[in-house]
Every structure is written in C-alpha cells, then in structure tokens.
Amino acid sequence: MPRTSVPPPTGTPAATSDNGTDSALTHGLKQRHLSMIALGGVIGAGLFVGSGAGIAAAGPSVVIAYAVSGLLVMLVMRMLGEMSAANPASGSFSVHAERAIGPWAGFTAGWAFWVLLCVAVGLEGIGAAKIVTGWLPGTPEWAWVALFMVVFLGTNLASVTKFGEFEFWFAALKVVAITLFLVLGVLAILGVLPDTDAPGTANLDGGGGFMPNGSEGLVIGLLASVFAYGGLETVTIAAAESEDPVRGVAKAVRTAMWRIALFYVGSMAVIVTLVPWDDPKVVEVGPFYAALDHLGISGAAEIMNVVILVALLSAMNANVYGASRMACSLVARGQGPKRLGRVSSGVPRGAVLASSAFGFLCVLLSYWRPDDVFPWLLNMTGAVILVVWIFIAVSQLILRGRLEREEPQKLVVRMWLFPALTVAALLAMAAIFFLMLRQPDTRDQLLATGALTAVLIAIGVVRQRRSGETGTTDAGSARAPS
C-alpha cells in the first residue's frame, strides 16, 4: 500500500522510523518518476564520454568487458534491491551496512558515498560548462557552473516532486537519444540504412583482431567499464520517498538486466561493429559521435553535445539529491552534524545546501589548485563505488539469513542462488582491486580511496565506542543525533 507521512514542524531534525526510513521526508515521487530515474540512471555521462578510453584499450573485446562488469553490477543491484525492498530507507546501503555490520560501517559507506557524489557534482558541472562555452565562447566556465548549481539547488530545495519531474524529463531525453542511436546503428549493420553499406565483421576481426591489445587491453577496458555504471544506486535512495517504495524497488531491480544489456553492451557492440576501434575520433570526440559521423549524419557533433549536456545535467541533479538524502539519513542515525539533518516541508534543506556547496568548492579547486588538490580529490573518490559495493555484498550476506529467520515475508526481491552468487560477486570485486593495483593509472586511485576509507573507518569506530554501541543495530532504529 502507498505510504504517507506528515512532515514535522519546520526546522526539526529528521527522524528515523522503525524500518530505517526517514519519517520526516515526504513520499512525493510517483511510480513514473521512480521508473524513469531507474532507467535514466543506467544512461550516465560515463557511457557517452568515458567509454572511448575503454574501446581504445580493449578494441572490439570491450563488449566482453562491459558484459562482465555489467553482470557484476546486476548482482550488486539485486543484492541492494533485496535489502531495500525489505527495508526502504533514504540512506539505502548505509542503513543496511549499519544494521548488518555496525554503526561504523554505515558511517563509512554513507560518508564515502557523500564525498563521491559531491565531487561528481563538481566534475559534471565543469563538463557541462565546457560544452556551453563551446557554443558561447568568451563566457566564463565558472559562471555556467554556478548557474547550473543554482537551478538544481532550487529544484532540490523546492520539493522531492520537483526533483522527480526534472529527472523524469532528463531521463526521457536520454532514453530517446540512446534508443534512436541503437535503432540507426542496427539498421546500418544490417545494411538497410540508406547510403550505408553493411560493415559485416571487418571491424570486429580486422585491425589486430578481436583483442588487439591482448588480455592487458581487456583488463584496462574492464576497469574503465566498471566505473561507467555508477549512479544506479540512486534509485534505491529515491525509492524511500516514492508512493510505494517496496513495489518501486522491486520493479526497478527486476528490469535492471535488460536495461544494462541493451544500453551498455548493446551500444558498445554497435559502435565497434560500425567504427574501427583505433579510429582517433573514438577517443578525441567520443565513440557515439564517431559512429554517427561514420553514418554520415550531419551535425553529429552538435547532436552528441546536446545529449552529453543533458546526461551531465541529469547526473548533477540526481547527485545533489542523492548526497542530500544520504547526509540526512546519516544525521538521523546520529552519524553527522545535526544542522545537516534539518528538514523543512519534507526537504532536508541543510543537507541540500551543504552538498551543493561542497560540489561548487570542488569546481573552484579545479581552478585554484588544478595540479595538486583537485587531482587528489579525484583519486580519493576514484574507487569509492567499489568500496560501497563491498559493503552491499557483505551486508546482504548477513541480513539475508536474519530476514529468513525473522521476517521472511519481507523478501519480495531475492538474490539469485544465494549465497553462491553473493560470494562470487565479492571475489570479483577483490579481483578488480588486484587488477587496479597492477595498473599504474588506477593504482593511485585505489591507494587514495583506501586512505579515505581507512580514515572514515577510524572515525566511525571511535564514534561507535564513544556512544557505547559495540553491536549492530537491529533495524536502523533511530538515535538522537549527536
């Protein structure tokens, strides 16, 4: 049944209900909002921009890289969906980690993810500003970033419904764009698109073969593809503010498989079939532009710039939302400054302001300290998503048994072949960490992220000991913010 909640008086701290949801937040997201957030979350800026490096490294075998990493993401989302359907919470995996492992784990996973989202907001703002200044040369990039920040600050401060509407239309535009691309690409591959010849397998087995750079290239492509899937977690955060959280999470997770296969693996297959993997345009201007240009579509560059701009703005909007809800949830569980947990009219406005401010600070640092502080920030958050995935997998291993014993009726979504696939996913994550250590380009990211994680764990353990909580929490029950 749809849930409703009456927000507390203006200026009160967020509270946490018995199942870990933040009761001060409203349930203003409709099912169509949640469905499109889930769909649009798959189509991120990393797909349009970052996939070029993967293709250049792995060649046509990038399809295998995206398929393998996509399978891992499906397993992670299934685990997260199982826990979120059983206990919807705006803190999502942070709440689950706290319930399963202890307060220190919820603290670490939550704040690491908050830092990641805030840094991502700044990066996406910079990327979007570069596109706009390309259309309007002479205008300052920082001013465009500030404008984008103000707009999304406004939408997130207004109400969750406003956020949902913005994200609904952003996601709709991305879905239409990628669908049209796939249709045109398939028609070209079949040789039925006017003025184009079917490429056959020339680009798949020519130019060095299917794996032109061997297994090393495939590994680099795999690492590039893993981080392109970031953003899927937002749907489980948003579900807590939807009309029917359990149904929304279940539907989003159950359709994750075909979305990943279609949008990521499908688009990579179309691109490497149509365009030689070593075409300089794949990296210089992006693989999607290279494919459209190969098909002779006029204005391909501008079309892709518009699509990428929409993807970046959508990600900014979603990340401000996700960061603010994560911070609000952490404060509601006594894991952060009370000011960030102030909820007014169902919106955690203090958390929205703080998250946006931190994001804009990252933008300023890219101008003030481009050679030291900003790269350090990027490295520090480079592997955070993998840390989060590990917390998700470990939490699901623990909570599944607890649910089966105590509340089996809450297992609306079940992890496949439990516990074998959960353990397999953890082993795959460990393998990715090992591969990152072997690659010079990713080693610094892993070490910096490890340092951030270690610091957060230390703070979380100290806070837990000071508060006298040595065990795990039962169901994300509330504690007074400290």
Summarize the entry for a quick read:
With 482 residues, this protein is mostly helical. It has helices at 31-42, 45-58, 62-86, 93-100, 103-135, 141-158, 160-190, 202-205, 214-226, 234-239, 245-254, 256-274, 281-284, 287-294, 300-332, 349-368, 373-380, 384-406, 420-438, 440-466, and strands spanning 12-13, 342-343.
How would you sum up this structure, described in words?
It is a multi-pass membrane protein. By secondary structure, this protein is mainly α. It has helices spanning 31-42, 45-58, 62-86, 93-100, 103-135, 141-158, 160-190, 202-205, 214-226, 234-239, 245-254, 256-274, 281-284, 287-294, 300-332, 349-368, 373-380, 384-406, 420-438, 440-466; strands at 12-13, 342-343. A two-stranded antiparallel ribbon has the order 1-2. α1 (31-42) packs parallel to α11, α15 (300-332) packs across α16 and α17 crosses α20 (440-466). The two termini are 34 Å apart. The model is unreliable at 1-21 and 470-482 (pLDDT under 50).
